[in-house]
Amino acid sequence: MQPINVLHLRDTHEIGGPGKTILETFRAIDADRFRLHLGIFLTRDESGDSPFVRAARDYGMPVHFIRGYNQYDPRMIGGVVDLAKSLQADVLHAHEVKSDVVTLLAAARHRIPTMTTMHGWIANSRKQRMLVSLDKRAARWFDCVIAVSAPIRDEILAAGARPERVRLLHNAIVVERYRRTGERGFLQQLVGKPLSGPVIASIGRLSPEKGHLDLLEAVAMLSLNGGPKPSIVLAGDGPDRERLEARTKALGLESLVHFPGYVARPDRVLEETDLMVLPSHTEGLPNAALEALVMEVPVLATRVGGTPEVVEDGVTGRLVPPSSPRALADALQDFLGDPAPWKRMAARGREMVETDFNFTTRTRKLEAIYAELTERTR
After folding, report:
1. Which residue among 37, 227, 306, 325 has the highest number of C-beta atoms inside a 10 angstrom radius?
2. Mean pLDDT for the chain?
3. 3-class state of residue 259 by DSSP
4. 115 and 220 assigned to the same domain
5. What pLDDT shows up at residue 377?
6. Cα-to-chain-centroid distance, residue 259
């Protein structure tokens, strides 16, 4: 039996949660039954060298570039058709607004099963809100739509997607990759000096929807009462970095808050972290929470998107309302005053992640979806 050829399509230079899922799927999938390829959209002047492309090549995943004069060049549609034909692709698998639209238009020219994974949406601007609306409507035309959380599934269904085509498939992590080594000093190398007090980290893209500004405001509200001052590590990069650095300075927090940039090994950061904070305004299903809990790092997060499917308030972590620095500050104060209950929640969280969010289990479910989709369309 011929392997099923799947062409993943993405329009990003960053790895992020969706990128990690694609790369780990490539490693975990049954290579005798499936062949996975990665198609990346680029303009004619863009370099093919990016963190995501480098990571894919390190994994051994075949990478193909689909170029256009600009990012909206309709010739990219033909590029996808030509690539799908040359690879004898059986499935086109899209992952965000642009790849969703291009995939559907390509499939109109060259009939091929289509699917998309809806990882969540960013709506910081009017343009982004328009694209989100377009993406939700586009979901109804795919042969299969994967939602990574129940709220995303519900939004897709409300936008008109056919229920029999929508599948809930949570994000997951390769739990075996997250183990404590007992080594220290990684964070000191990253920030260039020793860190004092409890380490409070937030790992992820520095973008407005991630709510890091709320975290800075919350830290400024803390009443330390002579106790040890925490060290705050905002690990990641993105469009909000300059604004966050400026606000850190305005709040007088330069001695506490550190910006080490993008970190390829979040597990090494987590090993030296006492509390993980996810102050997001929106989420799909946060890999960062899964990674923290499997390392038994307590998690404080906002009650948005699929986060409550990972962090159960008072059981596997703490949840607070989004966009509320005061609520964040109160929870941080509670942790600093008595971290023991938080550590017990993290231990329960690890058991939950290992049982319910194991990447091997997720991959077997995805394989079944690929097989069913190709069989049904044939």
Report:
1. 306
2. 93
3. strand
4. no
5. 66
6. 19
